[in-house]
Specification:
Blueprint lengths: L11 E6 L5 E6 L3 E8 L2 E8 H6 L1 H5 L1
Antiparallel strand pairs: 1-2, 3-4
Length: about 60
């Protein structure tokens, strides 16, 4: 399942409701990318959500 290694953001479950009010289960997944990040001077591949990439958390926390 998609999960960000920095902020631990994962899938969220809910109910999709159509115009005719028919209900069906739905899952929203975070936009996770596999990125190369420097961790203590060594390059490492991590799964990071695009929100963390945009805010610069990948450079600060990792």
């Amino acid at each position: 399942m998609a999960k960000c290694e920095l902020c631990s953001k994962s899938a969220v479950f809910g109910i999709k409701v159509s115009h005719s009010h028919r209900r069906a289960n739905k899952m929203w997944k975070p936009n996770v990318k596999k990125v190369k990040v420097n961790v203590n001077g060594t390059a490492r591949r991590m799964y990071i959500c695009t929100r963390c990439m945009r805010s610069g958390k990948s450079a600060v926390e990792a």
